[in-house]
Amino acid sequence: MHDLLHDLAIFLAGDFYCNSEELGKEEEIKIQTRHLFVDLSHCSSKLYNSISKVESLRTLLLFGNFSSPNCNIEGATCEILSKCKYLRVLSFRKLDEVRNLIGKLIHLRYLNLSWTDDIKTLPESLCNLCNLQILKLYQCSELTTLPSGLHNLVNLRHLDIRGTSLKEMPRKMSKLNQLHVLSSFVVGKHKDNGVQELGGMVNLHGSVEIKKLENIVDVEEAKRAKIMDKKHIDELCLKWSSGDDLVSSTQKERDILDNLQPQNGLKELKIKGYKGTIFPDWLGNCSYENMTRVSLKSCNNCCMLPSLGQLPSLKSLRIEGFDQLRSIGEEFYKNGGDHHSSHIAPFPSLETLVFHNMACWEVWHVSESERFPQLRKLEIRNCPMLKEEMLNQVFFRIVSSLSDVSKVRKLRIGDLFINRQTEAMFLNGGTLSISGCESVMESALKAMISINHHKYDLVELVIHDSCDSLTSLSLDVFPNLKNLHVKRCRNLESVLMSEAPHAALQRLSIGFCDKLVSFAGEGLAAPNLTHLEVTWCSKLEALPCDMKSLLPSLQSLNIQRCPNICRLAEGGLPPNLKSLEVGICEEQMRDLSWMTNLHALTHLTISDASSIIWRHWSATSFSASPLSNNYTLIGVPSWRIWKEKSCLPLSYYFNLDGAVCWENNARTSIN
Fold it and tell me: Which sequence ranges are marked TM in the entry (predicted)?
C-alpha cells in the first residue's frame, strides 16, 4: 500500500484505529478501537493485558519480540483469543504454541503466524475457521505437519508455507478449489495426498513449488495433477529430494516429468534433482514464448541438456550440478525433431548464462551459427575438466559475435572481479568484464582490437593479472578512452599512440609491468590527461618525452620503484602539476632542477631515497623551489644526515621516517 493511501485510511478510521507506539506509558487502548497495531518490543505488560478488554476488535497486528519480563504472555494471549471473538484479521509472531482457542475465532479471514519458529504443529481447531481466506505460515521452520482437516477450509484462497519443514501435505487438498495462491505442495506417499490432489485446484495463480516428486509411484498420478490446465501459473518449480540418484527406470522418471508439462504461458521454470537421463521434448519447445528464466540444478543422471536454444524470450539460464554431462553440442541449440526450430536463431534473447559444478564436462561446441548475440553475463565455476583451449575458443566466438561489442564502454580483464576458480564474462551497462582464464582474456581483448579493425567507444580499459602475450598496446583503436589501468601485464613492452593527440585520455596507470621499456616514441600527446601513475616498472628507461608541452593538464604524477629512469622529465614537468610523488628512483633524484618551475605544486612526497642521494642535495635546492612553505611532505632516512646539511627556514617541517607529515602547520599521519 502506498504511504498516502495508508495515511488516508488511518485518517478515515479515526478513533477506530490505534497504534501502540503513539500511546503514552499511562494511556490505555480505547474501548471503541477496532484496528490495533502493537509493537511488542515496546509494549508493557499492562498494555498487553489490556488488549483483551477491547472485545470489539476486528484487526489485531502484533509485531516484534515481547520484552517485558513480568508478563504472563501465554495467559494474556489465551485471554485475547477468548475475549476478542469478532476478530477478522490476526497476526502473531514468535509464538511458542498455537492454542486450541484459535478455533473459536469463526469470523477470522486473515491469519498470519509467520516466523513462529517454535511451533511444530497446528491445532485441529484451526480447521473450524470456515471463513478463513488467507493463512500465512512463512518461515515457521519447525512446522512439520498441517492439520488433517485443512480441506474443510473451503474458502481458503491463499496458503503460504514457504520455509516450513512439512513432510507431506494433509489429505484431500483437492477440495480447496478456491485456492489462488499455493506457495508449495509437498507430495505425500498416500493415495489422497499425492500429486494428483493438485488436479482439483483449478484456480492456482503465480508461483507454485512441487516438492518430493520422488514419491510419485504411477506415471498417471502426474498426469492427473493437470499442470497443463493451470493457465495462471507464471512460475513453476519441480523438486526431487536430494540423496540416492539410483532409480528403477529412468524412462519412468522422464514420463513423470513429461506429464508435469506446464501451460505455454509460463515465465519461469526451475527443475532440481531430476533423476532421469534425458529431458522430455516439451522442455525447450519454442511454443513457450513467454519463458524468460530457466534453472536446472542437481540433475545428476542427465547426460544431455535439453534444447533450450529455441526459447525466443529466454534471458537467464542457470545449469548446475550435472555430474554425468560430458559434452554440450548441437542438441543444446536446436531440437532436431522440431521442424520449426530450424528457422530460429538459437538463444536470440539470452543475457545471462551460468554453469556451476559440472564435474565431468569436457566439451562445449559453439559453431559459427550458434552464438549468443545478446549475452551480458557468462559465468563458469568449478568445471575442472573443461580445458582452457576449449574456453578460449568459446569466449572468442561469443565476444566476437556480440551485437553490442562495438558499443562497449568499459572493458575489464583480470582476476580482481571474481575468485580464481571462476571463468566469467560480463557485459552490463556498457561494461565488459572477463575473469579467470588468461588465454580467454587475451582473446577477448584481441577480438576487440582486431574485428574489422574499426574503432570502439571504449571509455575505460582495465587489465589486471592477464594478457601476458600482449607486448604492445595501441591507444589508436580507442579514441574515446578516458581511463587506462594496466597491472601485471608481464610482457608489455610499450604503450603506443600513432594518431595524436588523444584528447579523451584523462587517467593513465601502469604498474608491475616488468618488461615495459618506453612510451610512444614521439611522446604521449594527451592534452587532457590529469593523472599519470607508473609504479614497479623495473626496466622503464624514461617517462613520456616532452611532457611539459604534450601533457599541459597534468595535475598528479606518481613515479615509484622505477630505478632505471635517468631523468624525471626531459624538458621539464608540466607547469600545472599540483601533486608529485617519487620513490626508489635513484638517478633522477640527484638533480632537483626539475622543481624550479612547478609554481602550482602543493603536495610533494619523496620516499625511500638512500643516504647517498640525500647527501647530493643542498638545502638551497629546496629553498629555491617554488613549493609553498606550508605544504611540505618529505620522507628521509636519517635525521643526522639531514641535520648536517640543513639550513632550511623553520617553516619547513619534516618527519624523517616518512610516517608523519605537516600540512598547514597541522600534524597528519600518512601511510
Answer: none
